[in-house]
Amino acid sequence: MKVISSLEDIKSYINDHKSDEAISLIPTMGNIHSGHLKLIKSASSSSLKIVSIYVNELQFNDRDDYISYPRTLADDLSICEDNNVDLVFAPDSSVVNKQLDDDKNDLPKFTSYMCGANRPGHFSGVYRVVKFLFEILQPSYAYFGKKDFQQLLLIKYIANTYFSKLKIIGVDTVRDKNNIALSSRLSKIPSESFHQVKLIFQTLMIIKKKLLSGLNYNTIKEDCILELENNNISVEYLDLRSLETLKEQVNTKQPCGVFIACYIDNIRLIDNIEI
Predict the structure, then answer these.
(1) pLDDT tens readout for residues 117-128
(2) Could you list the active site residues?
């Protein structure tokens, strides 16, 4: 497995290999866990597998959150090598920031909802860095988890707008035995608080069951938020939204999902479930 951090070296490597085989890209911010491994294993074995590891400062609206984000590069490289990754691109921020477009991107309307409403600049940061990775690495396929569903829609928008030959593949959320959606942020939550984390998916399942029984979402939402907050879970949003536009819904007449962002011990977690 090859590890590259410089812009010149990665451009040379891609130029030498892009005509030989398809490139599969798995973008990450490191601290690789089983959710990332599913992305890696979803990539075709006949393609050149590239994992990028870059903690994108621009998508953090909280400086302390960025500073405390887990960085485990040595372990990440070992995991990648054990799982047949061909190349890891791990650039320094000084390399990336010089190459980025300005932040005056015309973001689609749906990025102003949910995470976009509560994390100023987040999706602009995602947009700029992912577009840079696509330009430099020239993948044929790129793999992203459905847990970050709003981000996945933005990635598809970027591909459709600028990279017409690139196929974006959404991969189902990986969960542990308690149905907790795997996340790098889980490592920051005390073990005694994991009983609270389990309540997130349990709540989503309760809502799904009630919606499928014909109940209007507005009759369900407030009780669920109250129950979570009674368990010391601070709810940022708990929304029923269209899977295509992310506009709010009150019923399941069109394809939709329930989306949640909440805080447990000041750690922000997100999850969703399709209805």
Answers:
(1) 999 889 999 999
(2) 36
